[in-house]
Amino acid sequence: MGKQNYREAIEKGRQEIAIQSSTAASRKAYRKANTVKKKPKKRKNVLLPALFFMFILLPVALLIYLAVLYEPDDTLTTSAVNDQVTLDTNPSPSDNAGVLADAEEDKKKEEKQAKEAADKAAAEKEKAEKEAAAKAKAEADAKAKAEAESKAKAEAEAKAKAQAEAQAKAQAQAEAQAKAQAEEKAKAEAEAKARAEAEAKAKAEAEAKAKAEKEAEEKKNASGKTHVVQPGETLYRIAVNTYGAAGANAGVAKIKQANGLSSNELTVGRTLILP
């Protein structure tokens, strides 16, 4: 309880005492009035006690209050009782002690409540801070985990892509090499085939030529008659000169057969066997 609350509690107790005193005074005055009315002979003079109270007891009580309990304050406390305003300037010591005890008890209660509230607030704050820290840590862990997973996934994808590209490149190189080898092989086979065909053709031509020459030599040896083709001569003329006009057609056939000719065309300077 603060100083201001303590003063307010004292002033509140003083107000209650003033109300009780005023009420008691009113009741006492009312009873006295009724007593005076009923017993006018026993009427007492209240002036002297009032003067005594006002000029002796009140100053003494005020001095005691100022010396013991009073603390400088600019606040004046007033209370309205029965449509009258009473200024409380004479609290009794016993009432002040009760007020002080109640104020002290209230102060202790308020301090206890304030301490409990502060402890509760501190506990709640600590709990909130722990929860916030745990939440932040969980979020940070989750974020770090997600980043690690994303990084690992990206690295795995990059590695898989690199492997796929390497495999595709190796496969393309292998296919290109195989294709080049196949082309080289086909080219070599074609060249070998061409050479073989050329060799075979040359061989066949050589054989045919040798055979023709052999046959011509044989026929020459057999008939012993040859003729060198001259410019402007034809096969038919040679046959007419050799076999006569009557046997010219048959002679043409014999000359072609003996010399291996497929047509009637002749080359100047060629030696023909005339069978």
The separation of the N and C termini measures 163 Å
Spans of 5+ residues with little confidence (pLDDT < 50)? 74-91
Biggest sheet details: 2 strands, antiparallel
Strand content: 5-15%
Order of helices and strands: HHEEHEHHE
Q: Give the total of beta strands.
A: 4
Shape: rod-shaped
Give a short overview:
The chain has 275 residues and is mainly alpha-helical.
Textual characterization of the structure:
The chain is rod-shaped. The chain has helices at residues 3-38, 47-68, 93-223, 235-243, 248-259, and strands at residues 78-81, 84-87, 226-228, 271-273. The chain has a two-stranded antiparallel ribbon. With 275 residues, it is mainly α. Among the domains are: 3-91, no CATH class; 225-273, Membrane-bound Lytic Murein Transglycosylase D, Chain A, CATH 3.10.350. It is 76% helix and 5% strand.
Features:
275 residues; mainly alpha; Membrane-bound Lytic Murein Transglycosylase D, Chain A; 5 helices; 4 strands; 5% strand; rod-shaped
Give the helices and strands, then pairings.
Elements lengths: L2 H36 L8 H22 L9 E4 L2 E4 L5 H131 L2 E3 L6 H9 L4 H12 L11 E3 L2
Antiparallel strand pairs: 1-2, 3-4
Helix pairs in contact: 1-3, 4-5
